[in-house]
């Protein structure tokens, strides 16, 4: 995206959010590239072993604490979210005690591929 010199921060934010929603993201937000108050909770969650076999969440912990170690000079972070909605009933609507629940993200195609393609398009914008 070529940013005109006279574009305000508010207008740039709105353009990015509008484009992200047009690409199919369900949520989009922009925040300063700084530590989060939730980081302490996340670190305790990891220490308690709640990540299970997702060991990648513990790797490079210092990079997770500060995005500027990944993207030097970053001033803002664009965060996008996608629903895992499918055409099937919600697992919480199952109502059959003899059936198990399967996490919604596992119902369809790999959400990483879908999200990465949308993020590439947003980055190219």
UniProtKB/TrEMBL annotation:
InterPro entries (alphabetical): QueG (IPR004453), QueG_DUF1730 (IPR013542)
Entry-linked PANTHER family: EPOXYQUEUOSINE REDUCTASE (PTHR30002)
Species this chain originates from: Candidatus Entotheonella gemina
Record keywords, A-Z: 4Fe-4S, Iron, Iron-sulfur, Metal-binding, Oxidoreductase
Pfam families in the record: QueG_DUF1730 (PF08331)
Protein name: DUF1730 domain-containing protein
DUF1730 domain sequence ranges: 64-124
Source organism superkingdom: Bacteria
Molecular-function GO terms, alphabetical: 4 iron, 4 sulfur cluster binding; epoxyqueuosine reductase activity
GO terms, biological process: tRNA queuosine(34) biosynthetic process
